[in-house]
Specification:
This is S-layer homology domain-containing protein. The chain is an alpha+beta fold and 785 residues long. It has 16 helices and 32 strands.
Length: 785
Amino acid sequence: MNEMSISPQRRRSVRNYRANAVGTLAAAVLFVFLTVPIAGAESAGMSSSATSAAEPMQNSSSGIIDPSRVKITEEQAAAKVRELFPVLKDAQMSDTRLIEGNESGQMGNNDPVWQISWTVQRGNHSSGFSSDVSAVTGDLLQMGIPSDIFSEPSFYPPKVSKQQALELARKFIGKAVPSLQSQTLQETKFKYGLTVTPLFGPIVYSLSFQASHDGVKIQGQSIQVNISGNGTVTNFYYAGSGLSFPPSKPKLTLTEAAKQWEQDLKLTLAYVPADYQWNRVPEKWSLAYVPEIPLNVLDAQTGQWTDGLNQKLDISKPYTYVALAATGEPYKSHPVTAEEAIKSISTIADIPETYKVQSKQLNKGRNGEHDTWHLRWGKDNNSFYDGRSAQVDAETGVLLSFYVDRWGPGANEEAAEKPALPKEKAVQIADAWILGHVPDGASYRRLDTSADAAIQDSSDVTLTYQLFYRDLMVQTRNISLTLNHEGRLVGMNSSLGMGSTEQLDLLKATLKPEEAKSKMLSSTQMDLVYVRSGGYSLSPSGKPIPVTMTLAYVPIDREYGEPFYRMVDAISGKMVSLYGNLQGAGTSAEPTDIQSHWARTALQTAIEHGVLVPDAEGKVHPNKKITTGDLIRMVALASSPYVENPNYNYYGAAAEKLYADVDEKSPYYRSVNYWIGTGWLKADGNEKLHPEAEITRDLLAGYLAKITGYEKLSVRLGTAASVSGLKDSKAIVNPGAVELALRLGLMNAKEGSFRPQGNVTVADAATILYRLARIQGELDRPLSR
């Protein structure tokens, strides 16, 4: 499902579902990152070692599976998995369940699936995981094998190349998914969200393929295959089993579709985060031209634009927002305890009197984030079904989210039809709540509810509020409220605040609307694809939305070959992304300043593994001297390519100040924190790390001793003849570390001198990390932890 193609008012209801979904694909805002499900996660259901074909088969979702639908036996499914994964020759089948595809993450697929649980014993250690096989087609749907089962991890350099891994993956898919044998598979590059393999640690190729039907690509239907550097398949996921497709011949031609895209596209100015971070107030803002209405799916048979629910979009007028009539005192932020937050939520939310508070946890905020209370209510202390969950900003008292868990046994029992709350009453309640419980509530505008802007999901009504500043929309800053038939809160999601408005006041558009439209049109092309919609449930009612496959034209980014999500900067005129540089870490493009450089191989390897990221001009400046902070960052990225991305969790729990000169505002904060978590550094708020100082070769050698885990051994190497024989040995502060670096071949002496006070360039550092990666399999402990 393409969230960008859902109208704002519908999008919120879908997001509520996503926040609560169990066993489905994870989705990010604007575009989808596909992940392999966690091995070992089991669905609640009836266990069955063997099932008689003459009896109805138990299923944990609907209760019964028609045995006539089962074409593949349990034994056949298990034999297939063992054949595909030879490492399972000694594995034990600990459990087998017959479930519906929905429970296996096959959204909208009700075909029966064999879910087989496996156990592998290694001495006193036991590993458990599961695999899913379609009981209709015999397709392997998912398998994730824990890494500790494979005795030989593959470090850099890998035994198989990326191209060889691609060929192995294609052959594996041919055996694993028989129903795809007549279809064409195309590798998906994922330029919008690259999967980067760390330079330090086992090499894994995360490969993705897009399937086609009758020669037409299937948007969003991806096959994921992870292959180790040894050429072994370790993870697999396929979400396209059991789908039905309409005819592949369109009534609308490609030329007609492109003309309609040009005719219907209308842009408007909006403030857009320049450094988007999930659920955090951005530090920088841009002014950009964005579509008034997201036009992402054009039905190839009817010529109608549709949204993510496959509903017709009315493009005759843009969405309208209603200003709120401010009444009473505005909300004043104040710290709250868990008990105060619980009391406040209980006055407005649908929490039955019989429910008890099951948990209240304070999550400490980092990098400027506020502390948040995570609260949960349930029927009893042991129930994980049909609960209520909330997040509250502990420093401001603002409710950030609230939702009803509707999953597990009897999940939809409460979804019986009840008199709907009149929209006028819903608007009155919701408007008053926004004004009285949200900072700067009067700056939010309600999406017009005169037509279908308020989703009527069963007896619940959802309203959406959008933040505005100087009459311009502030992208990603919005709130959705869902009220039940009694006017009680049953769903709430928010992205609050925009920080200081000073930089917004300075943004003035220099690009004309027609110039922006021309720029956007020249950056896109229309492609014919099958678009998948539905296959999920609306929240909070749990109302299922069936899967629909539609033959449609979609705008594709010419530069990246993926669905178009970029905007036009109203000042620079450049095409920009909400997520910054789309090439980002892991790009394979070679920078312009390393082609004839002596360290070209090491530099290109560092780029491919996210250790170095080319700048806007495509350069990495290999001869630039680096600082201590630069080195720390490069090593951290070599171990974990996403360590400095604020949208990812980072290693360990950090103090607000790691060193006297490294606090939460430092650009090196996350990388230094990673080093502390691995034991390479020890936090000391009274000492200085000097991250901005240029690093010397002597200090670099000392850090290498820490990274390799031989720091204590290096002390004993301090009197080695090879070091004492150097011309500049008396100037070396860390002789043992230098000896270690020389013996491991990580650093070199030149003409009998080590040059301990010499500087280190980007190329020098990349070369040393490249050498370290090549010998990591010979070290006594892993570099990446």
